[in-house]
Amino acid sequence: MSTLTVDVSQNGCIKNVDSSSSVHELDEYDFSRLPHRPRNLNLERQRSFDERSLTDLPLGLSPHPPSRADNFFRAFDHLDSAFSPGRRSGYNTPTSQFGYGQNYEPHPMIAEAWDNIRRSLVYFRESACWDNCRVLCQLVSKYYDPIRNTETLIADFGESAIGRVAPVDSGFWWIILLRAYTKSTGDSSLAEMPECQKGMRLILSLCLSEGFDTFPTLLCADGCCMIDRRMGVYGYPIEIQALFFMALRCAMLLLKQDAPGKELIERIVKRLHALSYHLRSYFWLDLKQLNDIYRYKTEEYSHTAVNKFNVIPDSLPEWVFDFMPLHGGYFIGNVGPSNMDFRWFCLGNCIAILSSLATHEQSMAIMDLIESRWEELVGDMPLKVCYPAIENHEWRIVTGCDPKNTRWSYHNGGSWPVIFYGSSRRMHKTDGPRRSQDVRSNFLKPGCRKMVGEYYDGKLGGISGSKLGKNQTWSVAGYLVAKMFA
């Protein structure tokens, strides 16, 4: 079983951290020996397909001088070889990030996908600063003053968002992407900038601060993550907890070993130890755990209590007994006092595998569950953001009669291609004798037909969303990343 083992000496220094798997191959680091500056990689750059598709192909794009956008795309030149050590391609080979040889003629849709990514970039003072992804635009908006002819970035911390909820996940994604950029390019100068170091310290200080909560998980409001509308995910949603875990692991590799950085790292190590144990023990559900909950005693006191959260066995939903296969399991949506949300949330389970929050056995069990419940969780269009949908009276109470989150639509059991990337990477990471190439190929086939939609409705996800947003950056990006791992 893969576990996170942490030893902290009396003076608080980290002695050993061991993990059998990694965050996008984060490697098994002894964190006490973290270098002050990560080693830069001297890569021999060669033209990958993303550059060819954007410069050589007749896509009707107007040329513009090289900018930071070009540097951004260079980070993906050798993504396939970096993430797929088993492939023939390496840093000095001409194989593109899709794993094809030089003579392979790519599908025109791939070139169109890269074209859409390029078009989505937003420029601030003639430099690309972000793309048109919905999540990021909730955080920062660009204001142009025509009188003064100036551009200003305006931060939004939730005061202008739907429901006025602060997005808790955005800070974690920023740290994770900063680590991904640093590892992919070998360039540590961005992460070492005083502004980035201060940003990480502010985010982590807020998340690691003491409060009235007795759990190592983060207490959140409803609508604070990808599910940004009222869907009953308030409390301790698995998506936030998995992202929190992943961001903490990434921050340990990014923080400088100065006095403020060392103090934060010590706090991170302690939190990771408690958080991993809590989530692996109390959020995990398989057939054995389901049987244990079914026979729980209630009103137990003291540290010897088995039913630590005083969950009432009668609160178990009927569908979960049919949903749980003989071999398989998953992290449930939420755990709190007298409350367990047994719904399946895809993104939280994806991140749990990618971040090594899930042990190897748990990772394989999640994949077993998906294969056993393929029609329910994948269907015609990957992937269900949550399962099952809530409806009727429960829908009225939980969502407040939200017309956008009707059953099997949007966040209430809708299918989101953006989650495609996580599932593909998850399959790549857990691949073994029981994983066939056909399973990964099936994930790619639906995306070839309708990859640019934001979400799809229906039990099988075969209906275009009632309020579908077209040409979505994150759907296109999800398809491209999945293609890299195919």
TrEMBL record:
<keyword id="KW-0326">Glycosidase</keyword>
<dbReference type="InterPro" id="IPR024746">
    <property type="entry name" value="Glyco_hydro_100"/>
</dbReference>
<dbReference type="Pfam" id="PF12899">
    <property type="entry name" value="Glyco_hydro_100"/>
</dbReference>
<dbReference type="InterPro" id="IPR008928">
    <property type="entry name" value="6-hairpin_glycosidase_sf"/>
</dbReference>
<keyword id="KW-0119">Carbohydrate metabolism</keyword>
<dbReference type="InterPro" id="IPR012341">
    <property type="entry name" value="6hp_glycosidase-like_sf"/>
</dbReference>
<keyword id="KW-0378">Hydrolase</keyword>
<comment type="function">
    <text>Invertase that cleaves sucrose into glucose and fructose.</text>
</comment>
<comment type="similarity">
    <text>Belongs to the glycosyl hydrolase 100 family.</text>
</comment>
<protein>
    <recommendedName>
        <fullName>Alkaline/neutral invertase</fullName>
        <ecNumber>3.2.1.26</ecNumber>
    </recommendedName>
</protein>
